[in-house]
Amino acid sequence: MTIDLLAIGRANLDLYSQDIGAPFEDVTGFDAMVGGSPTNIAIGVSRLGMRSAILTAVGTDRTGDFVLRYLNDEGVITEFVPRIEGKLTSLALLGVQPPDAFPLSFYREDPADIYLRSSDVDAVDLSTVRAIEVSGNALARGDCAGAVRHLLRGATARGITVYMDVDLRPSEWADPIDYGAAIRSVLTDVDVLIGTEEEFFAAFMPDPGPVMTGYRMPEDAMPELASTVSALLDDRPGVIVTKRGPNGATVESTDGSIDVPGFEVDVVNTVGAGDSFAAGLIRSRLRGLGWEEAVRFANACGAITVTRHGCATALPTADEVEIFITRSATP
User: Fold this and answer.
1) Total domain count, the chain
2) Which CATH number covers residue 116?
3) What is the pLDDT of residue 331?
4) Closest by CA position to 33, among listed 269, 251, 298
5) Among 10, 11, 197, 274, which is least packed, fewest CB within 10 Å?
6) From CA 7, how far away is CA 312, in angstroms rounded?
7) Given a cut of 90, is residue 196 above it in pLDDT?
8) d(Cα 144, Cα 119) in Å, to the nearest integer?
9) 232: phi then psi, degrees, rounded to nearest 5
10) Mean per-residue pLDDT, 313-320
11) DSSP characters for 232-256?
C-alpha cells in the first residue's frame, strides 16, 4: 500500500467557538474537530484525493478516542499512532472574531504526542512512502524530537521528499533561541521549507525575541532576513516557500524566485489557512505540477479555508479548489 504523505507531529482536539464575533468570555458553545498542523495537513491531503498517514501519539483518554475516530472518518491512516498510558491528548480552544482576532489557548501540559518514539517510526515501511511532512514544532519537547530526526535520516537515505512547515508555536519553546537551533539542526534532511516571514525570522535571525514574544518582525530586518533565507539554497533545503497570506506566496530555489498572487476573499477565520496551503502544495507536487501551478492551487486551498468556520472542517476537496480557481479566472 502506497502512502502519498506521511506527516509527523502533534494532534489535538480542537474546540472552535460557535459564536462568531463574540469575545471569548462570552462564548456559549464550541464545535469539536481535530487539529495540530501536521494532522491538518494529513487531513487536507486526504480531502484532496491522496492517501495520507499520521505519525503522532494520543492518550488512552476519551479525547484520544475522538481524535482517532475523526481521522479514520477523514480517510487518514492511523495504524502508526501509539496510545500513551497515563498521558492526555492535547486540546486547543479558539475564539473567532474576524477579520483578525482569533484568541487561541493550548492545553499541552505533558501531552501524549511528545512521547512518540523512534521505535514508533520504525513501524512504518518507508519504502511505501512518497513524501514526508514534518512540523517544526515537533522538535520542541520530549521523545518526539528524536523520533523526527530518526524519520528524517531514514527519508534522506531513501530519497523521499521531505517538506517541513516550520509551524512556530512560541509557547512550546523554553528559550526563543532553541527554536531556531532546532530548525537549523535538521535542514540538511529537508527538501522544501515552508513558513511565513515571521517564522523564518524566528528560525534564522540572531535575536528572535520580538516574534517569539508576540510582536511583529521589525521591518528594517527584511533585507537581512531575505539574504539569510536565500543563502540556505546553496545546499538543502533546495526550495523555500514563503507564505504571504492574502498576497499569495513566493517560491525560491536555485532556479530563481517566483511570486504567485493570492485570491481576494472575505475572511471568516484565518486559523488553518497555512495548513490548507501546505496540503494543496504537497498534493500538487505529488501529482507532478510545476511550482507556479502548485502554489496557485495551494493559494486557492488557503483562500477557501479562510472563508469557512473551523479548521479541519474547512479544508477543501480537489473539486472545490478547481471550481474556485475557474470562477476566480472568469471576468
Assistant:
1) 1
2) 3.40.1190.20
3) 62
4) 269
5) 197
6) 15
7) yes
8) 11
9) -65, -20
10) 97
11) GGGSS-SEEEEE-GGG-EEEEETTE
Residue 274, CB half-sphere, CA atoms under 13 Å: how many?
A: 22
Distance CA 167, CA 145 (A): 14
Strands 249-253 and 239-243: antiparallel
Q: How many residues does the chain have?
A: 331
Query: Containing domain of residue 232, as a range?
Result: 3-329
pLDDT, the chain, mean: 94
**Segments in the chain forming alpha helices (H):** 37-47, 62-73, 118-121, 142-158, 176-185, 197-204, 209-212, 222-231, 273-286, 291-306, 318-329
pTM tops 0.85, yes or no = yes
Q: Which amino acid is at 14?
A: D
Joined grid coordinates for residue 98: 474576524
Q: How confident is the model at residue 99 (pLDDT cuts 50, 70, 90)?
A: confident
Inform me whether the pLDDT recorded for 66 exceeds 70: yes
pLDDT at 186: 96
Do the Cβ atoms of 211 and 217 come closer than 8 Å?
yes
- Of 69-83, 100-114, 228-242, 244-258, where does the model show the most confidence? 69-83
Residue 177, all three cell numbers: 533561541
pLDDT (tens digit, 9 = 90+) per residue, 213-270? 777 788 888 889 989 888 888 777 899 999 999 999 999 998 899 999 999 999 988 9
31: Cβ–Cβ under 8 A, 6 or more apart, which residues?
15, 16, 18, 309, 310, 313
* Neighbouring-strand partners of residue 133: 7, 163
d(CA 97, CA 314): 16
